[in-house]
Design a protein that fits this description.
single chain; 471 residues; alpha/beta; Rossmann fold; seven-stranded mixed beta sheet; 16% strand; YcjX family protein
């Protein structure tokens, strides 16, 4: 155990060794990365996951809890003193208040340590007492994960990819209009550079609000202390043959390379490379509502994410992951509570089909990858209402920003995922034979029995996929 832990720490690098030595050698550590794409609800996911691991009455599909192997669970200080703590208590208070509300989204990296006393199973376990397993949950924006795909691209290639799809996306036409009035081969004029970067950033924010997922560079939307810096002041440009040394094109190329070197690589070196398991939350229902192009954009984003985990994809990543690699990745379509349970199989099937196509596109071979549909916090009840002589399966919930409860039927998802994926691949502007609606619900007041966490849909199955074998 000591030798394997030390070897593990060495493979993580100097920081990993420090973390390993900060706890007893006999205490295994699982680092779970949690990220989400475009309003997928990762703050609620982490809050509900921790609450349901502390009080496990609603976790029957999580085998360590179901068989009683987890004796107790408790929060304690995280090992990384320089990373902000995930504000679990404040977020849980928002969800369990007398008038509950959704917590504020996190827009930076944060971390939380949950320690579990686990009784080992099997013959050897019967002679041993409980051991402590630490679960370090690392929360970071999905936009940062998508940036990893930039490491495989140069400025010309990235620009060509973006300009090929930007016109029909929100704010894209405005950026192209501004770009057309400027000459990329001209000598750099900083006010022009800033105007182009602002316009492109406005496009990224508008696209994300409209349900698009593939929005890079991610730090443009979450600049933090880098706001206004040259490393965030560039934008895609059409190719210029033999650009001059002082040209706008050459300077944007330099800043793009600086972004990869000074923003992308440090995040993945210091945080991402130390993760054992990863869950990526996606708002698939929101993408379906936004139309075929948003669904195709989500598939492309999933493929880019899988490319990040592909062995040998990038020299930097190959060195980063040498001796260690994330071995399980779960893509989870959130907000399953917006559908009656009769439609959950369709939502899961569409998620699996998107993942299968993304795997093929990324030529992925590596970690075990899964897909499912979940609701980390159930905000609706189910019902059936008469409509045109038939009964529609609906969900009822409290509308966001209102005290009014409403019944909602979003439309029937197809049993064959190809009915959505085919028009998405072809770039159709709208669904031909159906409309899919989205309604935003507020959380319902909770009455929890002793030992119960917040109500959810398949959160226990997600925990089993990600953590079950480790416990």
């Amino acid at each position: 155990m000591v030798l394997s832990t030390l070897a593990d720490g060495i493979s993580r690098g100097v920081d990993g060794v420090t973390d390993t030595l900060s706890a007893p050698f006999t205490d295994p550590v699982i680092r779970l990365g949690v990220t989400g794409l475009s309003r997928a609800g990762k703050t609620v996911f982490i809050t509900s996951l921790v609450a349901n691991l502390l009080d496990r009455g609603r976790m029957p599909q999580f085998q360590p809890a179901a068989r009683g192997a987890i004796r107790t669970a408790y929060l304690q200080p995280q090992p990384d003193d320089t990373v902000p703590r995930f504000d679990y208590e404040t977020h849980l208070a928002a969800l369990t208040a007398q008038e509950p509300h959704w917590p504020e989204s996190t827009r930076r990296i944060s971390e939380l340590r949950l320690s579990l006393k686990v009784q080992p199973g099997g013959l050897i376990g019967s002679f041993q007492g409980p051991r402590t397993v630490h679960l370090d949950i690392v929360d970071y924006p999905g936009e940062w994960l998508l940036d990893l795909s930039l490491l495989d691209k140069d400025f010309a290639g990235w620009s060509a990819d973006v300009l090929a799809r930007i016109e029909d996306r929100p704010g894209g036409a405005d950026y192209l209009s501004l770009l057309a009035s400027n000459d990329p081969s001209a000598v750099l004029d900083e006010p022009v550079a800033q105007a182009l970067a602002r316009s492109y950033t406005a496009h990224l924010n508008a696209a994300r609000e409209a349900g698009y997922s593939d929005c890079t560079p991610g730090r443009f939307m979450l600049p933090g202390d880098l706001e206004g810096s040259p490393v965030l002041t560039f934008a895609p440009l059409p190719l210029v043959e033999k650009p001059g040394r002082r040209s706008l094109w050459r300077e944007f190329e330099r800043r793009f390379d600086s972004y990869k070197r000074n923003v992308v690589k440090p995040f993945f070196r210091d945080h991402f490379a130390r993760i054992d398991r990863q869950i990526v939350l996606v708002d698939l229902l929101g993408a379906i509502h936004s139309g075929p192009r948003a669904v195709e954009d989500l598939r492309r984003a999933m493929a880019d994410i899988l490319s990040a985990f592909r062995p040998g994809r990038n020299d930097f990543l190959s060195r980063l992951f040498r001796g260690r690699r994330i071995d399980k990745i779960l893509f989870a379509a959130t907000k399953a509570d917006h559908l009656h349970h009769e439609q959950h199989p369709q939502l899961t099937a569409i998620t699996e089909a998107l993942l299968r196509e993304a795997r093929d596109r990324a030529a992925f071979a590596g970690a075990e990858v899964g897909a499912m549909s979940i609701a980390a916090l159930r905000a609706t009840d189910e019902d059936r209402v008469p409509h045109d002589g038939v009964e529609l399966p609906v969900v009822r919930g409290r509308l966001l920003g209102s005290d009014r409860r409403a019944a909602f039927y979003p439309g029937a998802l197809p049993s064959d995922p190809g009915h959505l994926l085919a028009p998405a691949r072809k770039g159709a502007e709208a669904w031909l034979d159906a409309d899919y609606e989205v309604m935003r619900f507020a959380p319902l007041p909770l009455t929890l029995k002793p030992g119960e966490g917040p109500p959810h849909i398949r959160l226990d199955r997600a925990a089993q996929f990600l953590l079950g074998d480790k416990l």
